[in-house]
What we know:
- This protein has helices at about 5-25, 30-40, 45-50, 65-75, 90-100, 125-130, 145-150, 150-160, 175-180, 275-290, 295-300, 330-340, 370-375, 390-400, 410-420, 435-450, 455-465, and strands spanning about 55-60, 85, 115, 135, 165-170, 185-190, 220-225, 230-235, 245-255, 255-260, 265-270, 310-315, 320, 345-350, 380-385, 405-410, 430-435.
- By secondary structure, it is α/β, with parallel strands linked by helices.
- α2 (about 30-40) crosses α5 (about 90-100), α4 (about 65-75) crosses α10 and α6 (about 125-130) packs parallel to α8.
- This is Lipid II isoglutaminyl synthase (glutamine-hydrolyzing) subunit MurT.
Amino acid sequence: MKRTWRFWVALWAGKMINKGLLATGKKGTTLPGKIANWIDPDIMRHLSVAYTDGIIMITGTNGKTTTANLLASILRQSGKEFAFNQAGANLVTGITGALIQNTRWNGFSRASLALLEVDEATVPKFCEQVSPTLAIVTNFFRDQLDRYGELDTTVRMVRASLPKETLLVLNADDPLVAQFGTDHASVIYYGVERTPDSRSESEETREARFCPACGTALDYTLFHYGQLGIFNCLGCGFHRPEPEILAQKVRLEEGLLLFQVGVTSFTLSLQGYYNLYNALAAVTAARQLNINDVLIEIGLRGFIPQAGRMERFYLPEGEITLTLVKNPTGFDQVIQTMLGVNKPLRILIGINDLAADGRDISWLWDVNFERLGMHEACINQVICTGLRAEDIALRLKYAGVSVEKLVIEHTLADALDRLQASRTVQEVAFILPTYTLLFPLREILEDRQEKAGLTDSKTKDRGEEASA
């Protein structure tokens, strides 16, 4: 493909802006891509042809960032160089910025492989210019309806956009994802046999109660969470496909997630059984890249959680886990994880309603906070913060959490102080923010951790152990 003068101007402009931003201490994840796309709307197409070893795309509602970073950890362990939008800037501007950063001034790329997290709504624009070699689709749940619209629309949009020649890596346990394989030639499925939390009945919110092929109510023999499980349509025969990559013997031990695929055992330093799917997606893609299981296992074991994805901070008062919450199903799984520690809990929940969070916060009423009400005895305090602090406090009150245990504090630093005040050694602390509160809270935690001289000591130990 011939590169036009627009391409060169766009590339050089993007690289100069990137250098300027880095010089001022800013990340520069989207502005270079925004300017470059304004100059040359086809710049992604021109940049993508350099990746002769392939382009891996990861999309879906939950788990994109964690899956991408798990796979990145495996790729690094195997010695592969690759372009990567690691900061999670997954719109066209962020993806373009990542590709520009990996491209030299002469137009040649520094790596021949690209790993790109792509927002579901961005998939059509992305696939107009880029044909991914391999596409991972994690799951589909309702998320920011004011931005995405109804879930069915998002699913149809993603499905129609994926090129026929792309190898699809699909979550077999989600019927909304599994349906993609019914009309696609190259497909590989991953799934879970069962977890200790799997049940034959479920009261959780399910996005796929009906068969996506014929509309008949789906019959489940096992639920993992949400609509993920072992399903079958009695109307047309659509069913959960047999996964080539199947997680078995799943269990938690001392904060580690352990599972087996075939004869190979894997260990993941992440809480929550929902993270098992992220690991399986990464394992499946890595095997397709001919990376052996020894390197895959080392990459998973040495993985350090990214910003706000069950990320751990170490303060004098004790460890704090920070994790993003953004939709009902994801929040339900975080609640399940918190209750699963079987220790007294102190929780800080931060809800904003800015554009990146979703203006409509009615989704909070679809979260199963009643589980917190049912286990109120183990909840010592809940701090509510953010622009909609009163809304989340009201929701928790109706869920059965005692008003005496609810505290409203709009100032983030003060909210963190209240979380830590009089905290005992036995108590476990979680901070659960929406998007626009995640990084402000994270900066406070990082600053306090650094001042305390406890910077990631345990995290470094895990990484050194994995490399040994």
